[in-house]
Amino acid sequence: MNSSVSDTWFEANQGYLVAALREVREVLENLLGEGDESRREHVGSLTAQASGSNVDWSHSPPPALETLCSAFDLSSFERKVLLMCAGAEMDARFAALFAAARKDPRRSQPTFSLALSVFEDAHWSALTPCRPLRRWQLVEIAGGDTMATSPLRIQERVLHYLAGVHCLDERLLAFVRPVPQPAHLAPSHGAIAEQIAALWSRAARGPNLPIVELCGGEIADKRPVAAVASALIGLQLHTVPAWGLPSSAVEVESFLRLWEREAVLSSSALLLECDDAERPELTSTSAIAGILESIRCPVMISARSPWKCPGRVIVLIDVAHPSQSEQAEFWRSTLQPSLPDVNGEVERLVSQFNLSSTAIASVAVQAEKGWHLDRAPLNPQPDAHDGRAACLWDACRVQARPRMEGLAHRIEPAARWDDLVLAEGQMRVLRLIAVHVRQRAKVYHAWGFASKGSRGLGISALFAGPSGTGKTMAAEVLANDLCLDLYRIDLSQVVSKYIGETEKNLRRVFDAAEEGAAVLLFDEADALFGKRSEVKDSHDRYANIEVSYLLQRMEAYRGLAILTTNRKNSLDPAFLRRIRFAVEFPFPDVVQRAEIWRRVFPRLTPTQNLKFDSLGRLNVSGGNILNIAVGAAFLAADAGEPVSMAHLLSAARSEFAKLEKPLNDSEIAGWV
3-state class of 227 per DSSP? Predict the structure, then answer.
């Protein structure tokens, strides 16, 4: 309703309610002999009493009282009991009448016994728990000697509704939140919303109303779809996260009763967000199951995998991110006012980041703040034509980070190509990996290779070599060069002994990383990858399934996924064939170790008479070299001196003691 129509309805509804209350009050006055004889008459039709409001209700929404009575199927007597309770709150004359009827000025509230004695159509069943007044908590029975003589009170939410004032029951405020209509909805999502609206329009309300489950994707995509679908059939959407639901069965039943009443009063649908339901520490699956089994009002579920509910029809609808073309169009419409020349930047952003419309709008605001503050980007793309484009890129990275929190450790990449000391062959493969990531959009989409099939479009790499030979540093170099976030996932922590849990853990990681297509570094691949085991029991079969699932997700992942291992020979060759790149990180020889020593000290570190060729004879990996260099720097700083060979010798002895290895005289000969 527009504002003028709404104001007219509000005034008419007030008049209608006043007339209804007057009707009940006159009955009480007649009973007590306190009414005006000229106005006394038997209780009749409310429509006739309210005709003075001069409203043609056939052309406007019905009065709140009639809507409530119809929705909850109140009998004529129950309707009058409700009006008695409303009159006690809205008309002071009712209190005097109740006190007079009960012959006690302190007892000025209505009772069930009074209603039974006043109205000819009274019936005792009206106050049983299964009847609407108590089942839907329209009225409350206060403490008293007997149920019949106990005071009755109308629920505050119901009173406000009768008066035409719409507000959420305060007991629901801790659980549910309204979802506003989106400013923008991708065409593909609009089609899904229309599909849901058509489904609910055809179905009968009540226990047979199907539950709609929005699978996959992100909640930022599913909320707008659900909001628009609800609006198409005249409903306001509210949402409740599964982790916010009450835990006990009694509390769940109370919440369910309150919400079903609210759904009628405010014409609402509920979106139950179960996207984290696979994490027991965040939610109660029993509460979700109980609600799905019992709820009888329009409800949708947001989840990553299908829920089962015996006895209820659940319609599964997949909601993916908007397509690349839809994202590109929204990027242009959002950025055009601030950055007119966006075509080149949009194509690059869409090829790398898979964001919802809400996330794109947030990025635009965040980037614009950076432009106005004239801040330098965190890590600008080498080919970015200006700071604004770099700000956009960094804002996209930041927007995609929150979902990865708690699933992996983010490494701030600092290493660059000059920090790597590897043979030319290995360096060439690493640079080729960067080329594949940077040009994947052009080759797959612009040049059409994606049309050949989605399998194998992901870019995966295996870094194999002893500990400390530069595998993690190489991943840092790639992430730094590509201006992408780097996340380290310890596969030994992801793998679970419980069947199916490993796949769930991996799915959460990949789903969370898809938005930003970050560089994923899976450490300790030996924990999952091994020689393909002969299937002797169910555990062997599921172990192979876990490996296949990881490879499948790596092959479809939009970003770069890197596996590291200390023992390449222990990996099954069949699995290695599905990895696009393999880079060996051998133990460095004397020449390479000397070069690592030359590059290990930052430019600001003071050094004195360091003998790099002599240091190269120390038989350790690059990781140990870094540890020794840092240890020597602390010793020199404490002594107030530049780093010298003497400090390095002391640090080397400490490092070898930690490694439980002997430090040979030939390795340190000529150091000091």
Answer: helix
